[in-house]
Amino acid sequence: MNKFTLTRRQALLSAGAAAAVVGFGVPARAEMKVNLGVIRLASHAPSFIAFERGYYKDEGLDVELKYFEAAQPMAVAIASGDADYGVTAMSGGLISLAEKEVIKVIGGALTEEKGLVGAIILASNKAYEAGLTSPKELAGKSFGITTTGSSFHFMAHKIAQANNIPLSEISLRPLQKVGAVVGALSSGQIDAWAIQPSIAKKLIADGAAKQIGLVSDYAPDYQVTTVFTSTNNAANEREKTEAFIRAYSKAVADYNAAFVDKTASAEDVDALAKIVHKYVEADLPFEQAKTNLVEGSMRINNNLAMSLGSVTEQLDWFKSEGMVKDTITPEMLFDTSYVEIL
């Protein structure tokens, strides 16, 4: 009898301990630590939405945001292990790192889509008054880019190609940071630039530049930004990488519904705009920043699907310009096993 009583007491104590564990919410497994590279641009809105709405945590990820000013430094950080995932444009530096087997592109993000405004081609007021009223007149003019091999460089190529202008006849001005290009265009130090609408429309509204065209007229279906990670994460950390893609994709759905397709409720648009405002154009009054976001958002591919044709075209262009080695193959750069291929 005593033996039975003791066993029963032990069972009750064990049950109580188990209930206490559940009550205190101890996780079944530790969260996976992830460093995410971001740039304070509207195109990175899903990074911030997923962070603030707990989508990363829901997938067992403990995410820290790491801030960058341009695509190339982010690629270097991914390769060195200082960041785990990045969402930005393909750069020459990123592609070269793929040849060293340290980086893989695993998805697509921002995309040009016919019928949406997309990136806007701008002229400085000074250049516009001097006759630069169309991309057809870019020969002999200066065009702002962040770095050689950046998305701005590729857009200049597509615009020049469509207008039968040798790119060598356009003076490309590498200014390292988006803010520096904004300043140079506003002050007339450069003649032209192409940038996503959230920034372009603000420059136009402020009277600092004039619209002379749309990138989508020259590069429809252009995969502007991609999702990338280290080769090690892509090959050996599949659970973590798939969890990241699921969390980010959920935020992309929120972003597209609110700012691109305009199918979200007014309350949700407001809530999402407040999240983004914490990170993007935080120096502006909320209503102005919200207007910029609502009027200037570009589509981000659902579930981070990747336009393989567009990114392969970009790879071929980098090779043709001698910015990366001819020996780099699509298989070195792209891991197509994670997302839908368009």
UniProtKB/TrEMBL annotation:
One Pfam family recorded for the sequence: NMT1
GO CC, any one term: periplasmic space
Keywords linked to the UniProt accession: Signal
GO biological process per UniProt: alkanesulfonate transmembrane transport
Keyword Glycoprotein: no
Residue span(s) of domain SsuA/THI5-like: 43-254
Entry keyword Transmembrane helix: no
UniProt-annotated location(s): Periplasm
Protein name, UniProt field: NitT/TauT family transport system substrate-binding protein
Taxonomic source organism: Aquamicrobium aerolatum DSM 21857
